[in-house]
Write a structure and sequence with these properties.
This protein is α/β, with parallel strands linked by helices and 173 residues long. It folds into 3 domains: 69 residues; 45 residues; 36 residues. The chain is built from 9 helices and 4 strands; from the N terminus they run E-E-H-E-H-H-E-H-H-H-H-H-H. Helix 5 crosses helix 6 and helix 8 crosses helix 9. It is elongated, with a radius of gyration of 30 Å.
Length: 173
């Protein structure tokens, strides 16, 4: 497939049967494409560009046996194949730290965290490396005290825990 932006290069592929356009079609553009690509049978473009093509131009191209189709791949292509992502996620589940995984697979540390947040079905709490500041016993004790009528402010003072942390523990599901 030839991209329209490549036409400025010296090696035009005259036998190209398909091209992708990034600029609106005009009558001059259609003539230019027919001259540059005599065996053209398919033109692809983005949806927004297709919507702006005149129905007359579409009919004219159809009569010349040239199909105009919407084809647009959004976003950046993946840098890491799915196999690498699976290896990183499996290492995380085994309990390896993100830093050691980063060094082992030669992947930036932020990318490891990105894989964990984007591709993992598990919550962060299920990973062995996710360490809570306050253990489950203390969390349960705080929740029971509030159920028994104790005020979060008093609990905060008694256990020397910031008040916002007490509220976070209470709102944690």
């Amino acid at each position: 497939m030839i991209n329209e932006d490549q036409k400025n290069s010296t090696d035009l592929d005259i036998n190209a049967w398909q091209i992708h356009i990034t600029h609106p079609l005009t009558s001059e553009k259609i003539i230019e494409l027919m001259d540059n690509y005599p065996s053209l049978r398919r033109i692809t473009c983005s949806q927004s560009l297709y919507d702006n093509i005149s129905p007359k131009y579409l009919e004219a191209l159809k009569s010349l046996d040239i199909k105009v189709e919407v084809e647009y791949n959004w976003g950046r292509k993946r840098v890491h194949p799915q196999e690498d992502i699976d290896k990183v996620l499996n290492s995380l589940k085994e309990g390896n730290s993100p830093k050691s995984i980063s060094e082992q697979f030669n992947i930036p540390l932020n990318r490891v965290y990105y894989f964990r947040s984007k591709y993992s079905n598990d919550s962060k709490k299920d990973y062995n490396f996710y360490k809570r500041k306050y253990d489950d016993k203390l969390r349960l004790k705080i929740k029971n005290l509030v159920k028994n009528g104790e005020k979060p402010k008093n609990i905060s003072k008694d256990f020397n825990i910031p008040l916002r942390s007490v509220y976070n523990i209470l709102n944690d599901k």
